[in-house]
Amino acid sequence: MAPKKKTRTMSDAHKAALAEGRTQGRAVRLYLEALEANKPKRGRKRTADSIKKRLDKITVELESADPLKRLQLTQEQLDLEAELAAGDETVDLSELEKGFIESAAPYAARKGISYGAFRSVGVSPAVLRAAGISRSA
């Protein structure tokens, strides 16, 4: 007869440590995702007026375009409309930055993440300093 398996239960301290790790990981992830989403793009910035002008040109071009060109123009039109709609949204990084500053040092220590790794993904030195992450760490 096979021996009965012991049922294991986690201690409250272990559960709290897991919850804290999830919270820290979430704060770091949200901040890094916001940095990525708001990273300046290369080239001249498009304004709402320039997008609207291009949409007007596309509408005119669609009338006489062959099927393949019409497909490409339709996709460009959809992309520009989405860009125009998203252009009004602004992300408040300050709240995410506060969460990152509180969570980054213990998260980095636990995961073995260096100052250089954070810098390479776009976190500023001032934010790392505020979080207590130094170059020597």
Any chance you could write out the topology, listing elements then pairs?
Layout lengths: L11 H26 L10 H17 L2 H20 L6 H19 L3 H6 L4 H7 L6
| CA-based shape | elongated
Overall domain count: 2
Number of strands: 0
Low-confidence stretches: none
Overall mean confidence score, pLDDT: 89
Structure classification = mainly alpha
Distance between the termini: 54 Å
Q: Counting H and I runs of at least 4 residues, what is the number of helices?
A: 6
Radius of gyration of CA atoms, rounded to a whole number: 24 Å
The H-and-E topology, N to C, reads as HHHHHH
Q: What is the chains' assembly state?
A: single chain
Helix-residue proportion: 55-70%
User: Proportion of β residues?
Assistant: under 5%
Largest sheet: none
Short description:
With 137 residues, this protein is an all-alpha fold.
Write a structural description.
This protein is an all-alpha fold and 137 residues long. It is built from six helices and no strands. It has helices at 12-37, 48-64, 67-86, 93-111, 115-120, 125-131. 11% of the residues are buried. The mean pLDDT is 89.
What attributes characterize this protein structure?
single chain, 137 residues, mainly alpha, 2 domains, 6 helices, 0% strand, elongated
